[in-house]
Amino acid sequence: MNTRELTRPQKQFLSGVFPEEDCLLSPERMAAFSTDGSRLRAMPLAVVRPENSEQVSELLRWAHNERMPIYARARGTGTVGNTVPVQPGIVVSMLRMDRILDMNQSDFVAEVEPGMVTADLQAAAAAKGMFYPPDPASSGFSTVGGNVSTCAGGLRAIKYGVTRDYVLGLEAVLPGGRILQTGGRTHKDVVGLDLTRLFAGSAGKLGIITRLTLKLLPLPEATASLLAGFCSINAAMDGAAAIFQAGILPSALEFMDRSTLNALREAGSSPLPDTVQAALLIQTDGSEQGVALGLNRLESALKRVTPERLLIGRGADEKQLWDVRRSISPASFKLRPDKMGEDIAVPRGKVASAVEAVHEISARLNLPIMCFGHLGDGNIHVNIMHNASWPEELAHAQQAKEEVFRLALSLGGTISGEHGTGLTKAAFVDQQLGSNEQDVMTGIKHVFDPHGIMNPGKGW
Length: 460
Ligand SMILES: Cc1cc2nc3c(=O)[nH]c(=O)nc-3n(C[C@H](O)[C@H](O)[C@H](O)COP(=O)(O)OP(=O)(O)OC[C@H]3O[C@@H](n4cnc5c(N)ncnc54)[C@H](O)[C@@H]3O)c2cc1C
Description:
The chain is of the alpha+beta class. Among the domains are: 8-93, Uridine Diphospho-n-acetylenolpyruvylglucosamine Reductase, domain 2, CATH 3.30.43.10; 100-218, Uridine Diphospho-n-acetylenolpyruvylglucosamine Reductase, domain 3 (2-Layer Sandwich), CATH 3.30.465.10; 222-329, Alpha-Beta Plaits (2-Layer Sandwich), CATH 3.30.70.2190. It is built from 16 helices and 18 strands. It has helices at residues 8-17, 27-30, 53-66, 118-127, 144-150, 157-160, 195-199, 233-245, 258-266, 288-303, 316-326, 328-332, 351-365, 391-410, 429-432, 435-448; strands at 23-24, 46-48, 70-73, 90-93, 100-104, 109-112, 130-131, 167-173, 179-183, 208-215, 217-218, 222-230, 252-256, 278-286, 309-313, 338-345, 369-374, 379-386. The strands form four sheets. A seven-stranded antiparallel sheet has the order 15-12-14-13-17-18-16, sandwiched between helices. The two termini are 24 Å apart. Flavin-adenine dinucleotide binds next to β3, α5 and β10.
């Protein structure tokens, strides 16, 4: 029933379940829910804002019977168009469900609703001496539910893993209205298939998550960081290798290539001299004593590969070093007004080859392409900067994107380390996933969502 407009009984159903302020039907009120970080856009038929699982259950029972597409949505910071309602349907904003239901210092567990902003959860845990490690760069404005549904990675993944490693259990409402409970409060559980993990990275395609049980850790006492500038990308990789060879596992290991540093310089946000062509930003955490020792060991490991510049940050100075990393996104627009932001991942030892190959693509197509990201996980953010109003440059950017994906796959990598495929990469999924893999995935999805109403029209 993919009609362009809701029928009167359909509107009556929605406004019967959701009070007026939580059932948006006018284009003016729905416009903000038609797009996300991808900047792609499609107008929903309606937007609803549930406050509890029962409302979500009623909605999904109805949607299943009506064959009505459903698009779960949180803060809309996803960059691949996963929340965009490309087939006419209902957008379900989860932001009203944003409470901490329990935070327990004996179990080291938090029970939360999915619409909670990740940084708020981190702060609440820290106030009780606990630590929620997953830390996407968007943690200040994305939600825990969005992070679980995309299996968000982030800055601390090298030491602490990604979001899926912290989900112990969840409640999800399935099409048809069934409320599924998976996992629990134990940090280990091997009974049955791992349905909890199936939801991590499922991008709203299986059901709507309404509650999460998350693992917490003791809060590290202190952190310290180093920003190291090198004369080339290979020298920076030697720096990273020296850290690992010294037996050090940093809590974050980020890199920036020369295009990224150029953009930062143009924006006045780089503390590094022009001779620096690549940089590493490294963090260590632990007890006060452990961090002081870790910093010494990091410094001596890095000095072995003679960096051009080494800046150390503790306390307020540390924030300044991370501000450099945070400035990358705004600085990128100094190069061109438009961006294709890809997030390939390659085996860690292939990062230098991948970055050099991207530089070759950049030179050949005459486009500024920035490479930076989570070196520790081999996760490279490739920002293809261009001016979309110049047809030739737009075509070159598209070509660069296709070449970057082929490059990642040729190096044994993936077309997405953390953002997913959504709309912007849907056409490339076949290049990575074989038909057997996709058949099994389709079969699993069918069990949860036999009529294909959950987030239709997106890549795996
Ligand atoms: C500046 C910036 C930096 C970023 N940095 C990182 C980074 O370091 N690492 C990283 O991994 N990503 C990063 N991202 C991407 C984005 O922030 C993440 O994908 C984030 O997890 C999305 O969270 P959200 O709350 O905005 O979810 P949305 O974008 O609203 O939704 C994302 C997906 O989750 C689904 N979803 C949301 N809530 C639910 C629910 N309750 N039940 C079922 N499905 C649901 C949606 O259908 C959609 O498929 C960044 C984005 C920006 C703009």
